[in-house]
Design goal:
Blueprint: H1 3-30, E1 52-53, E2 63-64, E3 74-79, H2 84-96, E4 103-109, H3 114-121, E5 127-131, H4 135-139, E6 147-151, E7 157-162, H5 167-183
Length: about 180
């Protein structure tokens, strides 16, 4: 076989080798954990500060800041009335609101209709705030809605869940962590 023929046959294998390498990398990426538990640069770091106006529900007025909850375990649920997965998870958020000793905060993300939606669907939040321009959501690293964060007594983010809460995720992930953090001295 001449050198020219050998060179041509090797050149034909280069695209195949590149394709196989990319396929292997993709397969590894797909096997890495739960896609709804995205890594967050906030994990074990202080929760981003914000001060946002309260949604006008039952005469509520004023503003809310995470600083108000230092010393408490709390959950931030990012939602919007236009978000279909938020509507699907709402019964689970209502169930979560009944957990003793837990403060649930709703971050209404880029949504003018959040207060009306909560009035008709039920308001599970102790504080519901309006993030109309999405800046607070960006500071928290929100990719989309719904997203849920657990914050410990020291104000550190301990968990980020992406996508709607399900009964299974509530029972297996969220509540055990919340109870462990709450019961820690």
């Amino acid at each position: 076989m001449s050198a020219a023929v050998m060179a041509r046959s090797w050149r034909g294998l280069i695209p195949l080798a590149l394709f196989l390498g990319l396929a292997a990398l993709l397969a590894l990426g797909l096997r890495r954990g739960d896609p709804q538990t995205l890594p967050s640069p906030l994990l074990d770091k202080l929760a981003p500060a914000f001060e946002l106006p309260l949604l006008e529900l039952k005469g509520a007025s004023g503003s809310f800041s995470p600083q108000q909850l230092l010393g408490q375990v709390w959950v931030l649920n990012v939602f919007a009335s236009w978000c279909q997965p938020c509507r699907l998870e709402h019964p689970q958020v209502l169930a979560l609101s009944r957990e003793p000793g837990l403060t649930l905060v709703g971050l209404n993300y880029k949504d003018r209709e959040g207060a009306a939606w909560l009035q008709t669907q039920g308001n599970p939040f102790r504080f519901a705030v309006l993030d109309l321009d999405g800046r607070a959501g960006m500071d928290w690293g929100v990719y989309g809605v719904p997203e849920t964060f657990v914050v410990d007594r020291q104000g550190r983010v301990r968990l980020k869940l992406v996508g709607p809460l399900t009964q299974q995720r509530l029972q297996q992930e969220l509540l055990p962590l919340i109870r462990r953090l709450r019961d820690a001295a």
